[in-house]
């Protein structure tokens, strides 16, 4: 039965619900931006940019993470999977919260209920992952512990988001939103993406590129994580002291990320398109931090340019392209299909890169900014919808090879 298949493995439930929320978030934002292009503004007590941040940071990424970590995590730790009632409960509660936040575009009071469910569900998910780590006897659990630390840091970000939706018209609301955004991106999302990339990209590369020397020193990962936290801290401090920025630390960060792309053999990865999807997406992390560094340097001499270009290089370029790569790979492998993508999937993947470029172009060509933003939003919606048409049915279908899971 389709329903039973959907709950037969964590990745099925997490990826299905994440895909639904992702599509809803992209559809709503495309509608908002295209209306702006026609000169119409959306009237809402919730500033659209704030709801956009809530959905894009906390709406769908955590659902994909829960599907992935509850499927792959026990294999990392050589332990049994979490009890079904636990992972189903955490994913279902979080997904319900995300649906309510998405519906807040129509009924604003629902945002409070959705954000509250996010806090409760995520605390439950943190407990589940901590329990699996404690049950493990594997000697090296560093990646697992670091993921747990990032998951824990998501809780204050979610709490700030809840405070902002509970009290939307105080003198502190904008600060709470900024805390949610900065902590959510730099202490939660970026660390998780970097930790998983550090573990999996060299591993996948070594399995298909021969000869290949897997290179993933932990000093590099620790440096990345410290620099991400430094960016979060400096960004929040700059709220009170605008002259302070993270330009120098971002420059070091960019150098380490770009060096990792080189050491992981970005160019060789294109021999296997499914692998290249991960490598090319990771390159955006270095590009984004280089843009942040350049922007910080320019700001220190009184020049302000680029707007939100670095942010969207990170969130669309790195996060969304990586999401497309990892979720495609897991969906194929765990549905009993060959680990090879079709030409359509390859084109869709590069269209997501085009989305990132279009969104950046809007920051550097302000005279046509709304047009570029509209192109990016509509292209993102079409890309996600087409990808979903191909891959989402896999989550309720039986495995192609007849195996369980």
Strands, helices and their partners?
Elements: H1 2-6, H2 10-37, H3 48-58, H4 61-77, H5 84-103, H6 110-135, H7 142-166, H8 173-208, H9 218-237, H10 247-263, H11 273-300, H12 309-333, H13 343-364, H14 369-391
Short characterization:
The protein is mainly alpha-helical and 405 residues long. The chain has helices spanning 2-6, 10-37, 48-58, 61-77, 84-103, 110-135, 142-166, 173-208, 218-237, 247-263, 273-300, 309-333, 343-364, 369-391.
Summarize this structure as a short list of keywords or feature phrases.
mainly alpha, single chain, Cytochrome C Oxidase, Chain A, 14 helices
Molecular structure report:
It is a single chain. The model has no long low-confidence stretch (mean pLDDT 95). This protein is 75% helix and 0% strand. The chain is an all-alpha fold. It is built from 14 helices and no strands. It has helices spanning 2-6, 10-37, 48-58, 61-77, 84-103, 110-135, 142-166, 173-208, 218-237, 247-263, 273-300, 309-333, 343-364, 369-391. The chain starts with a helix and ends in a 14-residue tail after the last helix. This is NnrS family protein.
Report the biggest beta sheet as strand number plus sense, adding barrel if it closes.
none
Question: Given the structure, what is the number of helices?
Answer: 14
As residue ranges, the low-confidence spans are none
How many beta-strand segments?
0
> Given the C-alpha coordinates, what overall shape results?
globular
């Amino acid at each position: 039965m389709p329903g039973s298949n959907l709950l037969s493995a964590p990745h099925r439930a997490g990826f299905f619900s994440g895909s639904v929320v992702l599509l809803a978030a992209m559809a709503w934002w495309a509608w908002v931006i295209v209306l702006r292009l026609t000169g119409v503004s959306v009237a809402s007590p919730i500033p659209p940019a704030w709801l956009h941040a809530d959905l894009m940071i906390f709406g769908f990424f955590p659902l994909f993470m829960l599907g992935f970590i509850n499927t792959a995590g026990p294999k990392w730790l050589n332990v049994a999977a979490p009890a079904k009632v636990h992972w189903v409960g955490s994913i279902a509660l979080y997904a319900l919260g995300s649906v309510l936040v998405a519906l807040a575009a129509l009924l604003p009071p629902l945002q409070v209920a959705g954000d509250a469910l996010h806090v409760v569900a995520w605390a439950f998910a943190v407990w589940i992952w901590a329990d699996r780590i404690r049950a493990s006897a594997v000697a090296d659990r560093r990646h697992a512990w670091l993921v747990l630390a990032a998951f824990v840091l998501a809780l204050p970000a979610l709490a700030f988001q809840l405070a902002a939706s509970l009290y939307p018209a105080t003198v502190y609301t904008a600060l709470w939103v900024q805390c949610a955004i900065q902590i959510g991106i730099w202490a939660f999302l970026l660390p998780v993406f970097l930790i998983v990339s550090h573990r999996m990209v060299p591993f996948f590369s070594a399995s298909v590129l021969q000869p290949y020397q897997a290179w993933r020193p932990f000093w590099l990962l620790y440096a990345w994580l410290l620099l991400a936290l430094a960016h979060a801290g400096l960004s929040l401090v700059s709220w009170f002291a605008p002259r302070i920025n993270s330009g120098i630390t971002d420059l070091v960060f960019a150098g380490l990320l770009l060096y990792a792309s080189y050491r992981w053999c970005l160019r060789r990865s294109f021999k296997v398109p499914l692998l290249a999807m991960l490598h090319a997406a990771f390159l955006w992390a270095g590009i984004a931090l280089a843009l942040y560094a350049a922007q910080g340097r320019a700001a220190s001499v009184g020049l302000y340019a680029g707007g939100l270009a670095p942010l969207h290089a990170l969130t669309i370029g790195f996060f969304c392209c990586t999401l497309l790569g990892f979720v495609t790979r897991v969906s194929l492998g765990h549905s009993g299909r060959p680990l090879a993508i079709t030409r359509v999937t390859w084109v869709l993947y590069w269209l997501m890169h085009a989305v990132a470029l279009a969104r950046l172009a809007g920051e550097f060509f302000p005279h046509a900014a709304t047009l570029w933003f509209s192109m990016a939003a509509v292209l993102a919606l079409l890309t996600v919808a087409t990808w979903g048409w191909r891959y989402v049915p896999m989550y309720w279908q039986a495995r192609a090879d007849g195996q369980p899971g």
